[in-house]
Design goal:
Elements (H helix, E strand, L loop, with lengths): L4 H6 L2 E4 L9 H9 L4 E4 L16 H14 L5 E4 L1 E3 L2 E2 L13 H7 L2 H17 L4 E2 L26 H17 L3 E7 L14 E2 L10 H9 L4 E4 L2 E2 L13 H11 L5 E3 L6 H4 L4 H11 L4 E3 L9 H15 L4 H17 L4
Helix pairs in contact: 5-6, 6-7, 8-10, 10-11
Amino acid sequence: MVDGIEVKLGQMVMVGFRGAEPAECDEFLRSLRDRPLAGVWLTDNDSPMGYTHGNIRSPEQVRRLTADLQRAAAVPLFISIDAEGGQTIRLKERYGFARFASPRDLGERNDPAFTRAEARRLAGTLKECGINFNFAPVLDVNRNPANPIIAAKGRSFSPDAAVVARHAAEFIEAHHEAGILCAGKHFPGHGSSTTDSHKGAVDVTDTWDDVELLPYRHLIQRGVLDAVLTAHVRLRQLDPHLPATLSEKIVTGLLREQLGFDGLVFTDDLNMGAIQSNYTLEQSVELCVQAGADVLVHANVMAYDRDIARRTVAILQQLVESGRLGEARVDRSYQRVMRLKRRLGLL
């Protein structure tokens, strides 16, 4: 049976939600039956945007929650998380999880075998918890040691793009061994920025260099890059008007056409200040799909909207009905999502 347009549009949306136990998120669980989504994004109580009502309290609780999510879903879910290692990981020691080395630590050690072993240990933890998609590794090249959101948090493997590419490949392949998919981020490069896109607009026009594309080229050629997550950065030499997430010139022109990437493209969180402070939801949704994004991500942290999935699908539906979003375009994203869900054995 061919899925209807409503189901296909739902597979273009991923959201975060509040609650760690079924009683705390019962409404959201019930909504998954009526409104199939691409997936969910799990977080703990800490966010670069402040405190949130997280989904993580212990390993046992996360296992129960992910099982409940999959049972509730009409279409099996990508269950995603940020698990880079070091500071940027939602499965923290205080919840009973092991510590994992940061990308910076791994890059400075520069032992690919050790990186693979550490990533294998991390991926095994995700697998045990029922998480099947890691929004990692960071492919940003550490070009600005004063960068407040990348360098300051040890999220980049190295200032050397070749080292980033080498260790990112080990990280991804270790996840594949465990049956976990990965999304490289933040395309086309956040490592040279001087400000944080969680808080507002970021412009890397004067600091970005095309060497930052090397990790993407390497992983695409190697055939291991499942997905890419875009950056909310302005790069005026590529697009004088729009940040990368909303830019057809960058997502389709550069990533798809020039680099030859045919995997899944996720937006970074559309709740972040760089987008939410400058565009309405209707504007950001339309621009994202025009740019070429497959899955629109709403982490739903600070400006929490329990209706965000329905609202986003409704906007997509209106775009289809008005002719501004073609069904063939929807189907391309849908098929990319389904292809990866089949790889995970979800379908």
